[in-house]
Amino acid sequence: MAFVPARSHQPVLTSSHHSISIVAPPCLSLAAWHPTLAAGGGLAEFQGEVEGFTGERHTTECSQTGTGVALPPSVQAGCSHGVAESSGDGRAAGPKYGMVFDAGSSHTSLFVYEWDSDKENDTGVVSQNLSCDVQGQGISSYANDPPKAGDSLRECLDKAMKVVPAGKQRDVPAYLGATAGMRLLSSAADQVLAEVTKTMQEYPMAFKGAQILTGEEEGAYGWITINYLLESFTKAANIFGALDLGGASTQISFMPENSVMNWNETSKFTLYGYSYNIYTHSYLCYGQNEMLKRLAKELIVESSSSTQVDHPCYPKDYNETISLSSFRTSPCTNQSDPRLILGDRNVTLEGRGNASGCLAAIKKLFNFSACGQRQDCTFDSVYQPPVRGQFIVSANDFPSSPNVSPPQLSSSYPKENPERLPKYCANANYILTLLLDAYKFNETSWNNIFFQMKAGSADVGWTLGYMLNLTNMIPAEPPARVKGHIPSLWAAAITFIILTLALGLAALLLLLWV
Description:
Keywords: ATP-binding, Hydrolase, Membrane, Nucleotide-binding, Transmembrane, Transmembrane helix. This protein is α/β, with parallel strands linked by helices. 31% of the residues lie in helices and 19% in strands.
């Protein structure tokens, strides 16, 4: 996939969200899980995340990370200066605005951005003016009733119209990008996109289209967002990798050590006079929500009981009843299996709070044997060069413990979403398995991982990179060639030259006169 900033308004690339600090009840033994890392102490900080949480759900700012580890100086510098806060002070050139809907698998969010029109090609000048979470699930959930997908956007669109001055609204570029949830739909996806398009066109803004991003585009735009916000492109700073742990898919994007790579996994960028070759890959059906569905299906298939099934990752005394027909709603679980007929029968999943059993069940979802002993392979025979550099990780949810009952969880962590609490231990094992066994972070490179949801005032997801590309705000040329010359400096220089010539001529005439 090639990326070269456009000179027109045609897209070049066509086609989460909370963090918590974590301490407390045991979920699994690190030594039992990964002896090498336990001995090296590299996972000491994240072990707190695996074992429990504070219940204080918050949006992570630059001074905080989900791991409790202080950000490196390069990140803190970018957080301090990489994004301008909205000033609202009536600057002479006047601000410009742009908006992007992130239509994810589990929810949709609207982001409104603002920047100074006279700094359009600089980095670090975009501020996030508004973040609005759409009520309900993702637009893909409206496959059987597409008009509701469009209606679901109205509340956030109304809020956006209140933050953008009326005189500027018709010039605001507006986009909707759909990700893995919509990639999983078939023919219904077109109708859903048609309905959200119809709704957005009712508002006084420059609607630029709704489209489904490929997984690689999602990863690449996330990589652009992070490095733009931290000013890595223009300050000769470290180039960060991006890890996105979404609901239906997960993405990894980074610059490998060597430039010779599998071309099917390479994205090319020319930004501010520099060329970048990054590895990017997306794993559909390996997002947290789809992982939980696949896990439930496998537990049911392997159970000797047809109506009651032990779930090692759920807390003790927690039960969940599901219909086998629910597996037909996603291509990730709809595959035919001779061991299970996907009828309308109900099955009750009974929590057992078994940490080791949970980990073993999660690992079965990854086909590690397909890679053999290859170190340039994650799972399912997917090529990946060794991870390199520092990574910013964004994730939908963070982990908890299966060893306490639901009432204890709810009373201990009243601010947490009660529907998510029972799933956190499965998510913890999933995240660790993905990062350590699949992506092959180790006791050294683990320290380069930072769970970060915001940089300055902006979220670190793919939406900002997407808008920067489609509005041509990242030039291919170096900043010096883009910015041109400052008129005031030119005026001063010309004045100085004229005065110098005038004085020289006067001196010459004086000498001739004498």
